[in-house]
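Contributing new complexes? Match this layout with S-adenosyl-L-homocysteine.
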Amino acid sequence: MAAEQTSKTIEAYPMNGGDGVHSYANNSSYQGRVNNAAKRLITEAVVEILDIENLASSNTLRIADLGCSVGPNTFFAVQNIIEAVQFKYQCQGLDSQLPEFQVLFNDHTSNDFNTLFSSLPLDRKYYAAGVPGSFYSRLFPNASLHFVFSSFSIHWLSKVPKPVVDKSSSAWNKGRIHYPNSNDEVVKAYQAQYTEDMECFLHARAKEVVCGGLVALIIPGRPNGMHHPQSPTTVVLESCLMDMARKGIISEEKVDSFNLPLYLMSPQELEAAVDRNGYFSMERIITELGIITELGTVPETQRQKISSSLRAVFEGVIMAHFGYEILDELFDSFGKKFEVEFMRKTRLGSPSIFFALLKRKATN
Ligand code: SAH
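Output block (do not edit by hand):
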C-alpha cells in the first residue's frame, strides 16, 4: 500500500451511536429533510450527467457514502442514487443490462458500524460493505468508484488547527470555541486547515473515482460573499460552557483549549479547491438547500428535541475534552438558552447548506 493510502492520524468524533434517546439515528431528521430536498438534484445528476455506458462496463456500479454515520439518512441517500440509475437504464431501454450495485459505507473506525449494519434495509438491492477510515486519506482502490456521495460531513476538519490552541500563537483562540467571532489569525488558521484537508480529500477522490464518475456533496457552509457567520448552535454552546466555567464546574482554561473542528466553506472556496486539484469539473453548485437556523423554528415544546439533535452530533467531541460528567447539565442548559439566542439570529447571519456536483475528468 502506498504511503498516501495509509490513514493519517486524525481526530475522530463520530455521531452518537445506538438507537437511544440521544442517538444520531433518532436525532437526524433535520439532515434527513435536507437530504430529501437534494433528492431531485441527485436524480438529475444521474439522469443528465452520469455516463452509464462507459461506467458500468464492469457490470458493478460502486457507490460510496463518505461520513455515513449510522442511518437512516445514508440508506435513503443511496437508495435515491440507485433508483435514479435504474430509472436511467429503463428510459434508455437498457433494463436487461442493469448493473449490480455495491454500496460502500464509510466513516471513522469508531463509528457505530454495528448499528449501521443491523439496520440495513432488508429489501435493499445492493451489496453492502463498510469502509473504516478518514476520507481525508485514501480509502478505495484506484478508479473503483462510480458515484461518491457525502452529506453533512466534509465541514468536519481532520483536526482542530494547531495554532488556535497554542498559547504562544497570535491565533490562540482564548474564550471561544470556534472562529467566526475571533480575530483574523484564528480565522486564517481555520482556513488553512480547511485548504489542506480539502486538498487531501480531492486528491484521494481523484485517484478513486473512475473517469466520468460523479461526486455529490451536501455541505453546511456559508453563502459567497458572506463573512464567516456564527451558527446559533455554536454561540449557545460557547455561552453554556462559559456559564459552567463561571460556576466552577469546569475550568476556564479547559474552555480556552476547546475548539470545534468545523469549517463552513463557501461555494467559491470549494470551486477554488476543485480548480487547484484539476481532476474534476464542477457540474453544479446549488446554494440555499437549507438554512441551518431552521433548527430554531420548532416550537418551544420541542426544545428538548433541539438539545438532543445537537447532543447527537456534538456529544463525542465535547466528551473527549470535558469528560462525561458535564453532558446532562450542558445540554439541558443548551435547550433552555437556545431559544433566546435564536431570536438574535439576524445578527448572527445564517450558515446555509449547498449542493455541489463534481465530475471526474477524463485525464489520468
Ligand atoms: N451523512 C449522514 C451523517 C452525517 S454526520 C447524514 O447526512 O445524516 C457526519 C459524519 O461524518 C459523522 O458520522 C462523522 O463521524 C463523519 N466524519 C467526519 N469526518 C470524517 C472523516 N474525516 N472521515 C470519515 N468520516 C468522517
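Reviewers usually confirm one structural detail per submission. For this one: Residues 29-360 form a domain with the Rossmann fold fold (CATH 3.40.50.150).
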